[in-house]
Hints:
alpha+beta; 4 strands
Amino acid sequence: MLRIIARICARAGREAELRVVLRELLPATRSESGCLAYQLFQNADRVGEFVTVEQWTDQAAADAHLASPHVAAALARATDLLAQPPQIHRFDEVN
């Protein structure tokens, strides 16, 4: 299993618009093959900071997600809303 945490930051004043775009990703992403969990959080102290916490069966499923039409459409819509490129971090569980 692969876990991913992505940090996405909105431009000042564009937080609500970015939140809409990110929320629209939830249903399509959660129905993807290989998606075990996909959650979206908004920082309570920094309104423009969002985080996705994701669990995928493997790297191929995560790669397919990033190449999906709904992610491409969301990225196109979010370009002017982002303060910086999303920071994507992959994690392996330590036992």
